[in-house]
């Protein structure tokens, strides 16, 4: 075990290793067994910001441990921006081996020189917008904008962005403020994609959100996730993330009282990325962990947590195949362009929606 790990209060939990033994059967990819042997010499992987209740990380930990019993997993749950701060503070003596975050934070970590070059299994299959050209970060799953509709409160379930402008949805719609939330920014891009815009032209999305307000259909915009309020039945329609809707439906008791609708015209897929940390204490274990979550097995485990795999063509587990139907109208958010557009969205939204 590496003596240089000084995680202290940052660490939320560690999953203790059981006696090591080589896994049996075929490799998931060429060189897997050799990498596992090297990782066992290090004995652990330190995985920053992979909180177990988010994106099905708890199931990833369990599957990884079953396959690689000789490698301990240590993790924390810091949040994307705080993860970059923690990496920066410890850059002279890194504590983490891998770091997970919303892709905008991945750009920040790369710009600060905190992450290594590593191209995992299936890297070349990713859309270009979902990866750094030489592997400083890469997308492992997406969160996707959908309409989450409380069918007890809404008689006719809207199927499109055009539908949401109808008078029957007066004072019915909630979404997050794009000026202060990442999800709000992604909603602005989704609205742009659905109304003839693209990554280079977000104005149609800004104009559309302004129209929703002028129509009187927006109940409110919020600065934090309204998930609890939605579960309580306080929100008729939430323009939010698909995985929250599926979680409410299948895990948190809403059942048939919620419809999760991918808007017909188009919607946005927001990238969540991970990196190998530069000069991390356990580089082979870090690579083993990153490769695992990018295999078909690992990608399927994300799907079981209701987030869509980033690798195209992955066969979804039977348990979720019908819950995550094909959605060809999903368009990837290019996080480099999105970051450059933030100020324009903030100012445009304030003018169109708030009249500021």
Describe this structure in words.
There is one protein chain. The chain is an alpha/beta fold and 356 residues long. Helix content is 36%, strand content 18%. It is built from 13 helices and 12 strands. The chain has helices at 32-42, 57-67, 80-89, 103-111, 161-164, 182-193, 203-214, 227-231, 242-250, 283-294, 296-304, 318-321, 335-354; strands at 13-15, 44-48, 72-75, 98-102, 138-150, 173-176, 218-222, 237-241, 258-261, 267-276, 308-309, 330-332. Helix 3 packs parallel to helix 4, helix 6 crosses helix 7 (203-214) and helix 7 (203-214) packs parallel to helix 13. The model is unreliable at 1-19 (pLDDT under 50).
Provide the β-strand percentage band. 15-25%
Helical amount among residues, as a percent range? 25-40%
Global shape: globular
Distance between the ends: 57 Å
Classify the secondary structure makeup into a structural class.
Answer: alpha/beta
Task: Describe the largest sheet.
Answer: 12 strands, mixed
Please mark out the parts with pLDDT under 50 across 5 or more consecutive residues, or reply none.
1-19
Order of helices and strands: EHEHEHEHEHEHHEHEHEEHHEHEH
Task: Note the topology.
Layout: E1 13-15, H1 32-42, E2 44-48, H2 57-67, E3 72-75, H3 80-89, E4 98-102, H4 103-111, E5 138-150, H5 161-164, E6 173-176, H6 182-193, H7 203-214, E7 218-222, H8 227-231, E8 237-241, H9 242-250, E9 258-261, E10 267-276, H10 283-294, H11 296-304, E11 308-309, H12 318-321, E12 330-332, H13 335-354
Parallel strand pairs: 2-3, 2-4, 6-7, 6-8, 10-12
Antiparallel strand pairs: 1-3, 4-10, 5-8, 5-9, 5-10, 5-11
Helix pairs in contact: 1-10, 3-4, 6-7, 7-13
């Amino acid at each position: 075990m590496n003596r240089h790990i000084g995680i202290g209060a940052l660490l939320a939990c560690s999953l203790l290793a059981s006696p090591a033994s080589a896994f049996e059967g075929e490799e998931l990819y060429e060189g897997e067994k050799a990498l596992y042997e090297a990782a066992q010499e290090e004995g652990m992987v330190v995985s920053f910001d992979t909180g177990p209740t988010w994106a099905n990380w708890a199931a990833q930990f369990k599957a990884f441990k079953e396959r690689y019993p000789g490698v301990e997993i240590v993790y924390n749950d810091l949040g994307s921006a705080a993860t970059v701060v923690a990496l920066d503070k410890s850059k002279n003596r890194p504590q983490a081996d891998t770091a997970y975050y919303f892709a905008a934070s991945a750009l920040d970590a790369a710009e600060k020189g905190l992450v290594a070059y590593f191209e995992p299994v299936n890297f070349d299959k990713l859309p270009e917008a979902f990866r750094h050209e030489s592997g400083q970060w890469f997308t492992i799953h997406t969160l996707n904008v959908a309409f989450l509709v409380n069918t007890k409160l809404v008689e006719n379930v809207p199927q499109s962005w055009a539908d949401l402008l109808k008078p029957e949805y007066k004072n019915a719609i909630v979404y997050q403020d794009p000026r202060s939330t990442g999800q709000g920014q992604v909603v602005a891009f989704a609205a742009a994609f659905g109304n003839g815009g693209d990554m280079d032209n977000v104005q149609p999305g800004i104009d559309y959100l302004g129209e929703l307000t002028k129509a009187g259909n927006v109940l409110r915009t919020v600065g934090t996730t309204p998930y609890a309020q939605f579960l309580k039945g306080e929100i008729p329609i939430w323009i939010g993330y698909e995985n929250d809707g599926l979680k409410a439906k299948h895990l948190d008791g809403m059942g048939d009282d919620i419809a999760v609708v991918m808007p017909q015209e188009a919607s946005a897929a927001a990238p969540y990325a991970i990196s190998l940390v530069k000069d991390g204490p356990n580089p082979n274990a870090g690579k083993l962990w990153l490769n695992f979550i990018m295999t078909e097995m690992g990608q399927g485990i994300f799907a079981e947590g209701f987030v869509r795999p980033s690798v195209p063509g992955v066969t979804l587990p039977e348990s979720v195949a019908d819950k995550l139907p094909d959605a060809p109208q999903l368009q990837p958010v290019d996080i480099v362009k999105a970051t450059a557009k933030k100020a324009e969205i903030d100012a445009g939204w304030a003018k169109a929606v708030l009249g500021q």
